Amino acid sequence: MNQKHNSIINFDLHIHSKASIYKEKGGIVDNSTKENIHLLLSKLNEYNISLFSITDHNRFDLDLYLTTSTILTQPDNGYPNIKTILPGIEFDVTFEESMGKCHIITIFNPTNKNLLVNIEKVINDHLLLDENNSYSKKEFNDILYEIGIDTILIASQHKDINDHSGKHSSLSDTTTNVEEVIKIGYIDALEFQKPKVEGILINSLKDLMTTITLLSGSDCHDWNYYPYHDAINQNKFFYHSKAKILPTFKGLLLAITSPETRFNCQNNSNQFFLPGFLFHSQEIKFVKGINVIIGENGSGKTTLLELINGNVNLPYIRKIIGENELKTIRDADPKKTKYIRQGDIIEKFNKETLFSSDEENNFKEINNEPFKKMYYEYAENLYKCIKLSIEKKQIIASLSRYSISYENNFDVSSYFINITYSKEFTDVQNSHEQPYEDINEIINKINELIKQDYYQIYNVQLKNALNILIKIQLDINNKWKSLYYTKKVKNIIYKCIQDYSLKKRLNSNTKDREVTEYKTKKQKVIDSVIEAIKLSIEDYKWPNTPGIITGYSKNPKRGFNFIRKATYNDVSMLDDFYLKMFVKKFNNLLQIQKINSWEDFSQAVKGCSSLADIKSTWDENLNKFISSAIKTNEYMTDGTDQRIGSTLGEMSLSYYKYFTEDNNEWNILIVDQPEDNISNNNINNKLINYFNGIRNEKQLIFVTHNPLLVVNLDVDNVIFVKKENEKLFITDGCLEYEDEQNNILDLIAKNMDGGKETIEKRLKVYGKKY
Length: 770
Hints:
This protein is α/β, with parallel strands linked by helices. It folds into 4 domains: about 5-260, TIM Barrel (Alpha-Beta Barrel), CATH 3.20.20; about 275-360 and about 640-765, Rossmann fold (3-Layer(aba) Sandwich), CATH 3.40.50.300; about 380-535; about 550-635, no CATH class. It contains 23 helices and 24 strands. The strands form 5 sheets. Strands 1, 2, 3, 4, 5, 6, 7, 8 and 9 form a 9-stranded mixed beta sheet that branches. The protein has a 6-stranded mixed beta sheet with strand order 14-21-22-12-23-24, sandwiched between helices. The longest helix is centred in the middle third of the chain and has 49 residues, at about 460-505. It starts with 6 loop residues before the first strand and ends in a 7-residue tail after the last helix. The mean pLDDT is about 90.
């Protein structure tokens, strides 16, 4: 057989011949003979059956099998759709003495032709003559042992597994514990004949932890009426089982050991795929599904990945390509290809860009402005209160330093006018400044929204809101203007006073200067008294404690939630604020209110070294606090909001899940060692499932050293690379492929660490060899 890669085929493992006549009445098998084998083959070819078996009741017709096999091996035999016949028997077996019997279709491995004669010989030695007789389970086991050929056991089950009525020769008719028989792996598969029975079995087996294969068989007795039983009993609802296999015993065995990937599958619908590459003019094909490249370290596996991605500039890659005449059949389209080199995940993990693509970070930015504004305002107000508290105490204490004696002769008029004013004269605080800016910003934003298409349905409401805000804006603007121009006029007056005072100093006589000095000193005393009175009666409030606000973003994408949380998210940051701003003694507002002097203040501010540095250190501490508070923690949750671990292995696994669930960005996934950083348990239970989820839609090509990603993943194509004396040797084929030179499972067993054990673990429950 030259076919290297499997495909979806129809098969039928339940056909009878005249050898079953001892149990059949009415002549329904009379025409099912060796002489009429072409009748059956014509029917099978018509129904596109690639693989079949004639499984008679407790009998094996070796001559019929060999005759049919010989016909099928002839070139141009007239039955192009039929590839293989497998030897088989339908046994009657009783598991429990008090119960009925069941039918067990037994398919034998025909690889060793010399052993086939054993089947007929052993059966004849243990022949059942009465149509109602059956073999005990022990007798059945002894017969199989004596025959000495690997088998696949398929038990009939034509009803619910909990139905033990004994009327259908089903597995449940001969044992009360069908689940246990399935779990221990004694039975490889269950056969049904009607679609509704398949539905019943799926439902009754859904809670079973072990997967069991379900397949259909025609149970044809009269070949004239294939695929029906005979002329009278015609199951119009029957349909053939399909599996993705080579039409061989090994192909059937691998399908039964991996029903999720082999049965009820569809042809890959991907239209953008790589057909393969040339190796010394020999075409090495890629299939549309899962392709793996295996081999020893340094054998050239990664070079093949670089080749098919068009990355051939490195000298050592060009050297290997030239010496082995390697060439891509078609270059990979970068728009349709995702290539993950070895080490890419680690590099992106370390840079925290693992889930970023096309300059888009899936962790969305948090708007920290409300938090920053809140604490900047709190810090500003707190500083003002401390400053006012200190100044209040200082101004009252400083009154004792001011003294003036009334000088009557200094109140006389002089040539120059003496102008005095309070120090608050030019200190006009415009309390409308920030509201003026805020209302303008809001109005401008609404004007922008009105222009956007999305908000057209809200156009009327937005314009109504805008009209209200414009009225508010007008009122605030008038108040702002009043204070703005007041300050501006006072500033002009102040400039004029300063100019006049300078002129007066330059031109005044001694007496005038003494008068001016007296009046200026007098004004300072008045200002000090006024300021002390104002501060003593001023009722200033310490700022309110900042509230708790949210600093959080959540971006649902491809079944994940990308979550970013700021340190301040939903927690009070006041204690941390005090810790960053003040020394330990002043870690609460009550202690801060006890600051009485600038010396106290400088000692209270954390890191402050002098009175001159109080404000700059205060601002520096505040910025450090803000930076610390807005730091973020990024993590992911799955669809059920379960948090995903942040280790390299956990994030690597999530990375593959994330990209395999996308069906739009790529059609070809190329990976160099996807198993890196991921435990075998997670490979087996999760990563394999991710790849299986896309195998019918995308093309996967990857290099691996892990046999789980070959055997348990049940890959569609294995490319084995070997290097000897700088020359490459390449072999390819599906898992079940073998010829005179190569056996793919043998190559896996011999060239992958743990390969033999992985294969045996997959097949051991069936008692089969590979």
